[in-house]
Amino acid sequence: MIRVLLVDDQRLVRAGFRSILDGEDDISVVAEAADGREALQAAHDHHPDVVLMDIRMPVLDGLAATRHLLADPGVHTRVVILTTFDLDEDVYGALRAGASGFLVKDTEPEELIHAVRVVARGDALLAPSITRRLIAEFAARGTRPAPSPALDRLTDREREVLSLVAAGLSNDEIARELTLSPATAKTHVSRIMTKTGTRDRAQLVVLAYESGAVTPRWLTP
Fold this sequence. Notes:
Rossmann fold, 5 strands, WalR-like, transcription regulation, transcription, phosphoprotein, Sig_transdc_resp-reg_receiver
């Protein structure tokens, strides 16, 4: 059973999400919170596998709550950021803080259910189209890439796989692109995360672009 914590200052949003998720045999909403401070307490009390976290809330916003939550060694959960706009300026910050992905609030019910299952099993939720726009926005700020020593430990094949992860491809899509088995693609991704000290694909994407290891094709002259 996947245990979910809903965090949103709008009761109707929480009620809608609860009705969708509680209808699934393998998902249970174990608690709700109306702000980030309540979310931190609820996470300690109920030990959710996945937290659906609104980014705009009073008292303590979703970005700060995510940072606190994922920095706490006593909490073992994954966070999906909920936002009204898919290019919310704080979404990138949330990914850097360790969030496993994000969803826009008007997502379809089946996409919400899929997102919870994907994140619960340890994968990141990064739709390629949204990821490209998000990274493009970050790159357009003119931030100078900072080389990461961790990337020096990657093999040529692992760098190739990293570039495809950064483009938002799934393991199956990477396997088809490189003519590998899905199991081999998954192994490459796991080894890359181990070598770079990243917790999931979302942080891999952030690392790839911030280090300059991958340059967005749409920004290349």
